[in-house]
């Protein structure tokens, strides 16, 4: 039954999992950045991370650990369990039909610290591992709380800090929604409250999204991402600017006035895309902007395209109800935003329908 583990599965996990205990884990398709730990576990922290494995047989064992994350477990695209409690999880899903199956574990919530550790999917009940099946299409999303899906499942705009956490589902944010429409693997590198040069209300002044972007985990300042030949996205979507411009400047901030801030924002945006383009020369860029900064986004796209024709496409974000927590996009808005990105991708002609 959906969302429930059978009694047999629980008994397998506790008493009958000896064979799974010694089995090699399934090979993985991983969406998002992870850190390979010495014990074989994979630490993760960025929003939207997911793990997929393939096998034939009646059962699969799932092992992971989290601090505050909500995690969703799916088999063959059907939700089997949502885990909302901190700690270690070790379960077996059994009673599956004969043939091939895909098991998927995905991160729903946002965490700047802590994150979790994925231990593995293990064949159980005589199951046989199959090689992973990475998708040909890849898309990356870089941004702030709008890209995270901050409080997007909420039915009210007024939320406590805990409610924001509990009502955030990155897998239903516009990025993953868009990726699924194109059957693309995706990565989400986003941090609520961060901007291109300035964070919300002038906070955390020594960091911004471009400075934390290289990290393999948001809270790990040492281990940084390196070139990964398996990750060559055809599209990179950036949505940064809301936090830069949504609050008034303080007298002691680095910019003398808003005009200086906007000039610095444009310069850093052009440089940031240049850095990304150098690392991923095959990628085309979609730059998203709302009323508060769409003019600057269009200017940035124009500067980039003057240097590399067709590199960047600006997308205006409008017509949203912002009914999520703290006036953030709702699930209805996520569908609108996904449609805008989908339209831009089709206009760019990056992926032709077969």
Description:
The protein has ten helices and 16 strands. By secondary structure, it is of the alpha+beta class. The protein has two domains: 124 residues, Galactose-binding domain-like (Jelly Rolls, Sandwich); 212 residues, Rossmann fold (3-Layer(aba) Sandwich), CATH 3.40.50. Strands 1, 4, 6, 7, 9 and 11 form a six-stranded antiparallel sheet that branches. Strands 2-3-10-5-8 form a five-stranded antiparallel sheet. A hairpin with a 2-residue loop joins strand 6 and strand 7. Helix 5 crosses helix 10 and helix 8 crosses helix 9. The chain is globular and about 65 Å long. The chain starts with 6 loop residues before the first helix and ends in a 6-residue tail after the last helix. The N terminus is likely disordered.
């Amino acid at each position: 039954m959906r969302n429930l583990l059978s009694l047999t599965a629980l008994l397998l996990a506790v008493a009958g999992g000896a064979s799974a205990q010694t089995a090699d884990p399934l090979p993985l398709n991983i969406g998002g950045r992870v850190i390979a730990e010495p014990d074989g576990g994979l630490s993760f922290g960025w929003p939207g991370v997911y793990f997929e494995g393939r096998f034939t047989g009646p059962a699969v064992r799932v092992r992971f650990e989290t601090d505050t994350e909500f995690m969703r477990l799916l088999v063959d695209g059907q939700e089997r369990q949502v885990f909302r409690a901190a700690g270690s999880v070790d379960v077996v899903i059994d009673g599956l039909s004969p043939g091939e199956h895909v098991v998927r574990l995905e991160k729903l919530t946002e965490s700047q610290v802590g994150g979790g550790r994925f231990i593995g999917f293990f064949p159980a009940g005589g199951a046989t591992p199959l090689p992973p099946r990475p998708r040909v299409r890849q898309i990356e999303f870089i941004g702030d709380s709008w890209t995270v899906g901050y409080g997007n499942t909420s039915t009210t705009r007024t939320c406590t800090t805990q409610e924001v956490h509990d009502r955030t589902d990155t897998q239903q944010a516009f990025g993953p929604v868009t990726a699924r429409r194109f059957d693309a693997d995706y990565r989400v590198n986003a941090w609520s409250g961060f901007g291109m040069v300035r964070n919300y209300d002038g906070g955390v002044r020594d960091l911004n999204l471009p400075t934390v972007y290289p990290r393999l985990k948001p809270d790990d300042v040492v281990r940084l991402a390196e070139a990964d030949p398996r990750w060559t996205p055809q599209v990179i979507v950036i949505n940064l600017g809301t936090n830069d411009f949504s609050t008034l400047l303080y007298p002691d901030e680095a910019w003398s006035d808003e005009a200086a801030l906007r000039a610095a924002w444009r310069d850093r945006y052009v440089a940031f895309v240049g850095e990304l383009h150098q690392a991923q020369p095959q990628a085309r860029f979609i730059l998203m902007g709302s009323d508060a900064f769409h003019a600057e986004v269009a200017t940035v796209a124009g500067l980039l395209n003057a240097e590399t024709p067709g590199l960047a496409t600006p997308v205006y974000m409008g017509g949203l109800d912002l009914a999520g927590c703290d006036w953030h996009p709702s699930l209805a808005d996520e569908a609108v935003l996904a449609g805008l990105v989908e339209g831009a991708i089709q206009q760019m002609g990056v992926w032709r329908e077969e």
